[in-house]
Design goal:
The complex is a heterotrimer of chains A (502), B (157) and C (331).
Chain A (H helix, E strand, L loop, with lengths): L1 H10 L2 H19 L5 H12 L4 H18 L1 H7 L11 H9 L3 H35 L3 H17 L5 H15 L2 E2 L6 E2 L13 H19 L19 H24 L5 H15 L11 H25 L5 H12 L6 H6 L1 H34 L2 H20 L2 H19 L5 H23 L11 H23 L1 H6 L6
Antiparallel strand pairs in A: 1-2
Helix pairs in contact in A: 1-16, 2-4, 2-16, 3-4, 3-14, 4-7, 4-13, 4-14, 4-16, 5-6, 5-7, 7-11, 7-13, 7-16, 8-9, 8-12, 8-19, 8-20, 9-19, 10-17, 10-18, 11-12, 11-13, 12-13, 13-14, 17-18
Chain B lengths: L1 E2 L1 H18 L15 H26 L5 E2 L7 H24 L1 H15 L4 H22 L14
Antiparallel strand pairs in B: 1-2
Helix pairs in contact in B: 1-2, 3-4, 4-5
Chain C lengths: L1 H22 L14 E5 L6 H17 L3 E5 L6 H8 L7 E6 L18 E10 L2 E5 L7 H9 L6 E4 L6 H12 L7 E3 L5 H9 L5 E2 L3 H9 L3 E6 L14 H5 L7 E8 L4 H16 L1 H9 L4 E4 L1 H22 L5
Parallel strand pairs in C: 1-2, 1-3, 6-7, 6-8
Antiparallel strand pairs in C: 3-10, 4-10, 4-11, 5-8, 5-9
Classes of the chains: A mainly alpha (502), B mainly alpha (157), C alpha/beta (331).
């Protein structure tokens, strides 16, 4: 209890509260700007937090990331560009809703369920941090291999109308991910002697290119057609949200739970949590045919999941010093710099810092409601700016953002090349999302596949010998089996797809 | 521009064959029968299957009367096509000139050109470009310490 | 269009003139160095040990010089990208970098042409030896138990991890096996994406032991999930005084380690290099630096410019030998 009091005193310092508010605004801005991600917000905050005490430093990171993950939903709804990768899973759905005229409800649901999902994340972090991490800690490469494959399977789920093009896009993403140093043997693949290509396809610039540049190219070409932007008025975003909650409370709980679990698993963060929970939502929905037409159900799951994943990711990070996602990977570095070596000893030696993290999390989620409301209203202002002024400025931001990810022009080159590829893919009806997921999970998949093969001396049965691995494996295979079966039955329809409409 | 699926499929198949051919020189893990070449080969095989089905579908569509290449309506309007080309040219210019010229002059050029081309009034264009460039520079280079190229302004910044 | 390009042209001419006017400054500014912000390139990602070391030194250098010192992460390609960026930067003292043991390894692996000779060494500031870690409930109580079990097993039955194929901890394992008179493939190396996943795989029972450094293993050891049996160092680590050295535990005198030092591109002007080395020495002796390093469990080791150059040459030869033995070297 003493520690709790100390923690509260540490946080109720005016300077700390100022840092938290400032980083909340920073997080909102970074998250809402396409091309800037929550991970990037954290990475860019590190040099600033270096000059602070542990509590404001942690406060800045926790608050900024929580805000950024929510704020990523705003441009998704208004521009069909996800503000952060964590919103990518339901960007199309969200934009479809806006186009249908349900912009208010969409943004209100995004905000309220982000806050609620965040609370579930913190609650679970506080209540059963050690117990949950205990499960994830027992995962070896076999479990991770299946988990990655399961994540990729979801990517194909997303593109229900033309599975063939979804799978092609996924394989393409995985294939370009092979560029660079291979994760198992350290052998340079497809680099053609270039030093820059050794670092492979940088994920963030690639995502900025495929999601943002291709969209900007389309937008500039039609810059005179202001109608292409959602130009509805934002009214009372909270009306109707309670109705959604009453109808989909189970989706909210399920999404939040999946979010915490995925977040707690090392290597997978808010973005993968959103993909998986969205796919789960669609799979178990009573009205799966409504998905893709601007249906709120999947958004409830996914927007809760990506915010709850943030709390989840801190569980293994605090308890074992093992990051749950790329944000906490940076956080662990900051903790070390502050002399708080993450691990069970922190709970014994510096419990006030652990409590401080909990309190900041709660505070950040409370702050999110008013600040998110302002951001939504302000996001609208952003779009009131004429397109011919807005689009070049966003393009400039994407240029600088990609540059900042690699600290070299290589990031910009990557962004432009991937942007053109993404634009071509969309022109030809190939969905972009599976390719992006292939890029995110490719290394995890290959690394764990190769590691497992070496451990098993090539005996594939070893992939099913551990109980959790077996469960995950059977699940994945069942899903693929079902899909193939459906694919064969649905074949005539697929064949006729390419024919032009009469 | 939209090419027939058969063309997309053909491109995929050719690229996959090239990719698999390139893996021939990859070494195996010491003492194992596989190595860094295994994963790209599996993916290449998958892409060839997908490309093959795409070609099949595309040819079926072609028999049904679909053209080999469809030009999107916007690309037939010279001004829109020019916008598309202009954006690409500016991006390429940025890539090749950023290190020598530096961020600030290039960003100003980039923004003013695009603004004016897209029909923003010149004085608004100039003012927004200056404000935008310096805000971005202040935010990234000064506040967040991203090493944006200094170029010509190296000694004054 | 033409109006705009003329306007920008005028602006750019002014900029050129300005830079020409100021451009003579560095020629007489050696003692005034530094007069503008310094970039400190780190070849590894934000949050890692190298990044942390670069940042603490960056902060202290900034205090020392009164000019901003920006740590810039240039990651990827197993360190090749960042090391190349340091080596190919302008040798004016405004781009420096932290270089790591990988510089003595990656040219042997055929990843790059760069060697330690492509840099102006300034100072070596840290070295961490590898430990030998097993799962907490492992049957092996001492490193001798483990070594005997390895000797009596079929080649490849034991699996170890800690980093990628041909990485520093893989070479530590190969060196240890060689020192015991065993072939390099007596223990199969399971490549991992760094030490943290390897330690987790150890705790999850996926592998038999790891040979990563003590600071990397620390979180898992403190969590009671793993035990360290020995360190491959000349003396015990300050953070784990109960863990014996290999020589104490089994009479095998084999030591190695991962190190980090500061360097600039080749051809750095002598006065600037001397000034930097002197400042780094001051930092190395400072309380802040030592407190920070010990809080993370990092070892500290000092070598000045010429000592560091000799140190790197020795490391380069040692690594080349181990990599040839492991069959990883290409050149």
């Amino acid at each position: 209890m003493d520690a709790l009091l100390t923690a509260s005193r540490l946080i109720l310092d005016p300077y700390v509260l100022w840092v938290i508010t400032a980083s909340a605004a920073f997080g909102m801005f970074v998250g809402a700007m396409p091309g800037l991600t929550a991970t990037m917000a954290t990475a860019l905050l590190v040099p600033v937090t270096f000059f602070m005490d542990p509590v404001p430093a942690l406060g800045a990171i926790v608050t900024a990331t929580a805000m950024a993950i929510f704020a990523g939903d705003i441009p998704a709804a208004l521009l069909r560009i996800p503000g952060t990768p964590a919103s990518a899973a339901y960007t199309d759905e969200s934009y479809a809703m806006s186009k249908k005229g349900q912009l208010d409800l969409n943004l209100g649901v995004n905000l309220v369920f982000s806050v609620l999902g965040g609370f579930v994340g913190v609650a679970i972090l506080i209540v059963c941090a050690p117990a949950l991490a205990e499960v994830a800690i027992n995962f070896s490469s076999f479990e991770y291999f299946w988990l990655a494959l399961l994540g990729l399977t979801c990517a194909v789920f997303m593109t229900s109308d033309v599975p063939l093009k979804g799978i092609t896009s996924l394989l393409f993403g995985l294939a370009i991910n092979c560029i660079g140093i291979d994760p198992a043997a350290g052998y340079p693949r497809f680099t053609f002697g270039s030093v820059e290509l050794l670092q492979g396809i940088s994920f963030i610039p690639a995502m900025i290119g495929m999601f943002a540049l291709s969209e900007l190219l389309r937008g500039m070409v039609h810059a005179d057609a202001q109608g292409a932007v959602i130009a509805q008025k934002i009214g009372n975003i909270f009306s109707g949200v309670f109705g959604v909650f009453k109808r989909y409370w189970f989706n909210f709980l399920r999404g939040s739970a999946i979010g915490v679990l995925i977040g707690a698993l090392p290597g997978a963060g808010a973005d993968i949590a959103a993909w998986i929970s969205f796919a789960v939502s669609k799979r178990f929905s009573k009205e799966p045919e409504k998905f893709g037409t601007g249906h709120i159900e999947g958004i409830v799951d996914a927007t809760s999941a990506n915010n709850s994943a943030l709390g989840g990711a801190w569980i293994p990070a605090l308890v074992f010093g093992i990051p749950g996602d790329s944000i906490t990977a940076i956080v662990i570095g900051v903790l070390y710099m502050k002399g708080m070596n993450p691990g069970p000893t922190v709970f014994l030696q510096n419990p006030q810092f652990i409590y401080a993290v909990f309190i900041i999390f709660i505070l950040a989620n409370i702050l999110m409601l008013p600040l998110g409301w302002i951001a939504i209203k302000g996001g609208k202002q952003l779009l009131r700016v004429p397109r011919n002024v807005l689009l070049p400025v966003i393009l400039m931001f994407c240029l600088v953002g990609s540059y900042a990810m690699t600290n070299s022009i290589y990031g910009v080159i990557m962004m432009v090349v991937m942007g053109l590829i993404g634009w071509l893919m969309e022109e030809h009806g190939f969905p972009i999302a599976p390719a992006i997921l292939g890029l995110v999970l490719g290394e995890m998949l290959e690394q764990n596949f190769m590691t497992s093969m070496i451990k098993a001396d090539g005996a594939f049965i070893m992939f099913f010998e551990r109980p959790i691995a077996a469960t995950l494996g059977v699940m994945t295979l069942l899903i693929w089996g079902t899909m193939l079966w459906r694919g064969i039955r649905g074949r005539p329809a697929t064949l006729g797809e390419a024919a032009p409409a009469p | 521009m939209r090419a027939n699926d058969a063309i997309a499929g053909l491109v995929l198949v050719i690229l996959s064959i090239v990719m698999i051919a390139l893996t021939a020189s990859f070494p195996d893990f010491p003492g194992q029968k596989y190595g860094p070449s295994l994963f790209p080969r599996i993916l290449g095989a998958g892409l060839i299957v997908c490309g093959g089905i795409l070609m099949w579908n595309g040819l079926a569509a072609r028999r049904g009367g679909a053209p080999w290449i469809e030009i999107a309506p916007w690309a037939k309007e010279p001004r829109r096509l020019a916008t598309f080309v202009l954006v690409l040219v500016l991006l390429l210019l940025y890539i090749f000139a950023a290190e020598t010229v530096g961020f600030i002059p290039l960003a100003l050029l980039f923004l003013v050109t695009l603004f004016v081309w897209l029909g923003v009034r010149p004085w608004i264009a100039a003012a927004t470009a200056i404000a935008g460039t310096f805000t971005i520079y202040w935010f990234f280079a000064t506040l967040l310490r991203v090493p944006l190229p200094r170029g010509w302004l190296n000694s004054i910044l | 269009m033409s109006k705009i390009s003329r306007r920008t042209f005028a602006a750019s001419t002014a900029a050129v003139a300005a830079s020409a006017a100021f451009g003579f400054k560095p020629a007489f500014a050696d003692e005034a160095y530094p007069t503008r912000p310094i970039q400190l390139i780190c070849p590894w990602g934000a949050g890692g040990g190298t990044d942390a070391t670069a940042r603490i030194v960056g902060v202290l250098l900034e205090k020392e010089f009164g000019q901003p010192v920006n740590v810039v992460n240039r990651t990827g390609g197993s360190g090749v990208v960042g090391h190349s960026a340091i080596a190919t930067a302008a040798a004016d003292g405004y781009t420096l970098g932290i270089i790591t043991v990988e510089i003595a390894m990656m040219h042997w692996a055929g990843l790059t042409q760069l060697t330690p000779k492509d840099f102006t060494p300034l100072a070596l500031m840290n070295e961490d030896p590898p430990g030998i870690q097993v799962k907490a409930d492992s049957a092996y109580k001492t490193v001798k138990d483990l070594a005997d079990a390895i000797k009596g097993s079929a080649p490849g039955k034991f699996k170890a991890s800690g980093t990628g194929q041909g990485g520093i901890w893989h070479l530590a394992l190969v060196g240890w096996l060689k020192a015991m008179g065993l072939p390099p493939n007596q223990v199969a190396w399971v490549p991992s994406n760094g030490a943290a996943p390897a330690m987790q795989d150890l705790a999850a029972g996926g592998i038999d032991f790891t040979t990563c450094s003590i600071p990397e293993a620390r979180a898992m050891i403190d969590a009671g999930k793993a035990r360290s049996l020995a360190v491959m160092a000349p003396k015990r680590a300050a953070t784990f005084p109960d863990v014996p050295t290999l020589k104490e535990a089994m009479g095998v005198d084999y030591t190695t380690g991962a190190w980090r030092g500061f360097a600039g591109p080749k051809g750095l002007p002598q006065p600037i290099a001397a000034k930097l080395t002197a400042s780094l020495k001051k930092i190395f002796d400072s309380k802040e630096y030592n407190d920070f390093m010990s809080s993370r469990g990092f070892g500290v080791l000092w070598n000045d410019a010429s000592g560091y150059a000799a140190f790197m040459d020795k490391a380069d030869a040692q690594m080349g030998e181990a990599m040839k033995a492991a069959g990883i070297a290409k050149t």
